TrEMBL record:
GO terms for molecular function: ribonuclease T2 activity; RNA binding. Keywords: Signal. InterPro entries: RNase_T2-like, RNase_T2-like_sf, RNase_T2_His_AS_1, RNase_T2_His_AS_2. GO terms for biological process: RNA catabolic process. It comes from Salpingoeca rosetta (strain ATCC 50818 / BSB-021). This is Uncharacterized protein. Belongs to the RNase T2 family. Residues 1-30 form the signal peptide. It comes from the Eukaryota.
């Protein structure tokens, strides 16, 4: 459904914040560095609703590149795969920019290799246009990917090792996107303009404990902007099976504000 008002007030920051932060990541990462690669409890798979992002950011490069018939115009797309703690660590709910305060290490691992970008580029154009057309890719790797696989710790020693780590991390993202297609009732709501019940979304993804739902407010209506699913991991950092989301996700006003603000229904934004 297209928004019916320009009074489009976010309940909290959404995908646009990550894109803005990407421009500052190189400078801000050292002061925000926390945690060790591989030492976290679970993953959050964040799947964004691109039409909602593009309603807010129509001039962004990824939005200008999308046609109404494209996958991203009517399906959830990748925002990121984020390591998460089950409980707060020294005031941190997740690790980020791991070891960015080690200059030599960070200089070696902080960039996404060109051959990795080329390998995934066609997939990103379809499933993650913000990775293909904006700076979000670099931000997601620096903030989240640097903390994901324990093998990152040794990846700074050779380009081949870094290639293997980045290929694995971004490959896991693509596997999880494919495993979570957009529900048919969301597609129907997109066509009809009718809202979707929050409880239906929760049930589809396994129940209220298994999904976070992010909304943007326009007038007195809530528009779905992102879903977040939680995954367990193995010792290598590979995401395995869906798992109940921790309180650090479910009670968070960024990750689950459709629920924390007690929305019963959400509207689905149509690509303009």
């Amino acid at each position: 459904m297209a928004h019916t008002t320009n009074n489009h007030t976010m309940l909290l920051p959404v995908v646009a914040v990550a894109a803005v932060l990407a421009l500052m990541a190189a400078q801000a990462s050292a002061s925000g560095a926390y945690g060790d690669p591989g030492k976290f409890d679970s993953y959050v798979l964040a799947l964004s609703w691109t039409p909602e992002f593009c309603f807010q950011n129509p001039s962004s490069d990824e939005c200008k590149s999308i046609e109404p018939s494209d996958f991203a115009a009517s399906n959830f797309g990748l925002h990121g795969l984020w390591p998460q703690y089950n409980s707060s660590h020294d005031g941190h709910d997740w690790p980020q920019f791991c070891h960015a305060d080690n200059t030599s290490y960070w200089k070696a691992i902080s960039s996404v290799l060109n051959n990795v970008e080329q390998e995934f580029l066609q997939q990103w154009k379809k499933y993650a246009p913000a990775y293909a057309y904006s700076d979000l890719l670099t931000h997601e790797w620096q903030r989240h990917g640097s903390c994901a696989l324990p093998a990152v710790l040794n990846a700074w020693k050779s380009v081949d090792a870094l290639y293997d780590v980045q290929k694995a991390y971004f490959g896991y993202q693509m596997q999880l996107v494919a495993a979570n297609p957009t529900p048919g009732f969301v597609t129907q709501a997109l066509k009809s303009g009718k809202p979707v019940a929050v409880s239906d979304l929760q049930q589809h993804f396994g129940g209220a404990q298994y999904v976070g739902l992010q909304c943007v407010m326009a007038g007195n209506k809530a528009f779905l902007s992102q879903i977040e699913l939680c995954y367990a991991k193995d010792a290598t950092g590979r995401p395995t099976t869906k798992t109940p989301c921790p309180a650090t996700v479910l009670n968070n006003s960024y990750d689950n504000n459709c629920v924390t603000t007690k929305q019963s229904h959400v509207y689905i934004t149509k690509m303009k």
